[in-house]
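User: quick one
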Amino acid sequence: MASSAQRPLSKLETLVLGIIGFATFLGIWLAVSASGYVPRQFLPTPFEVLARASHLLTAPFAGATLPMHLARSLERYAYGVALAAAIGIPLGLAMGWYRWLDDIVTPVFDGLRFIAPIAWVPFAALWFGTGIGGPIMIIFSGAFPPCLISAYRGARFVDGKYIEAAQMLGASNLRTIAEVLLPASFPSIVAGLRVGAGLGWQSLVGAELIVASAGVGYMMVQGQSNISTPTVMAGMLAIGLVGLLIDVALRQMEAFVRRRRGLA
Amino acid sequence: MSAIVFESVYRYFTRDGKSFPALDGIDLTVADKEVVALVGPSGCGKTTCLRLAAGFEVPTKGRVTVGGQPVNGPGPDRAVVFQQFALFPWKSVEDNIAFGLRNQGASASTRRERVSAIIGLMGLEGYETAYPHQLSGGMQQRVAIARAYVLDPEALLMDEPFGALDAQTRIVMQEELVRIARVNPRTVLFITHAVEEAVYLADRVAVMTRRPGRIKEILDIRGVRTAERWNEHERIEDVMDLESFVHLRTHIWRSLREEKIGAVP
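Assistant: Done. Structure below.
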């Protein structure tokens, strides 16, 4: 085929292609596990994983059912992300407004932000314990950078005419930040929150590897100790689905914000 | 008294370590309650003049005073109407208009009263809770003017206020501005590149040279306007047909054209 401009695909075609990709993935998985080359114990079929997941919906494993583990995970997750947003967004906005604060924070932030959430695990366990504090800190370390960066970028690249309009109307610094910088950066902040929420969720299992009581990550670690691969994979399935749901919800919110603002 | 005075104002910009003159000694006084239009070829520094009076920029040399006070940063005593409106898209029409009043610490009842009065004056009834993006360009500019007027500023600074509007809307807004100015006269400095607009709206028209900007000449329109009874005409096009109007307009056109031709190397 000539490499001419590609025709845009219709929604239906996109959907069909997506299903083909997904079916291929499941087919290869099924074929490999059914072939017997890999011991069943280590690679259960998709059906076994689904069966295990639905069994775990009601039957407790490692002290709780899957929904109960998920609830505990979501609780920690909510605290971690909320903390990241509550600190990252105001700090980012303030850094975008006050140049001196930018100069103070940026070197520290750049020095720390390449330490992956998983690398915080031992430190977090030492400092904040394996109760709720440690995991929250790890989720926080995943969600915080995007929150801060998006608020900072949003504030830094606000159209100067809004700032000038606010100043000419006699607004104080604080009011300019709260009523001009914040709403002007809102689309950027929501986009950053989406990225942060995703990274925070991805950090969750790392966080829960050090937790001794409950949570999806804890359930998976217990599954590993018991060499119950279906349990481990059911946990992965739950993490994937909930992560997807969180992303879809935040994407809806982003679209809503943009619509209200007349941007889309 | 709230005259706007430019006293031998110079403004240089530096780029790549080199200094470029933008304004080269501006002397101009806009008297109390007077409307002065600043016209000039593009890039001549007319917007810079307005930004200096607004306090968004500082002169390299010389000074700008409003009401006898040297300009020191932007403030609500010198309300600006921007070409691109610069309404806050996240605030409703009434919240946009009330924003400046809130900054002044006006009570809720005072705000309601003054906002609803200006909404009536600007013909914005029924749009109080609408958001800027739901309004046409003309309506948005009405909100921007209301937002400035509601503060009862000493001086009103308008930067090509109708430049972003279509021709018909522009005419309506020009007539509207004349109407409002009769109800509530203000000291106004406005920038335009539309010569007709300048002659129709201003008491005096200041013509600038090409860059670096200087005031080339100042024409007083008031004498002709009174003698030829422009005010008896309701519509802008009737005024524009008058021989006295055409004469003034052509004079300014020629004056500007000399500058434009001179700009070609």
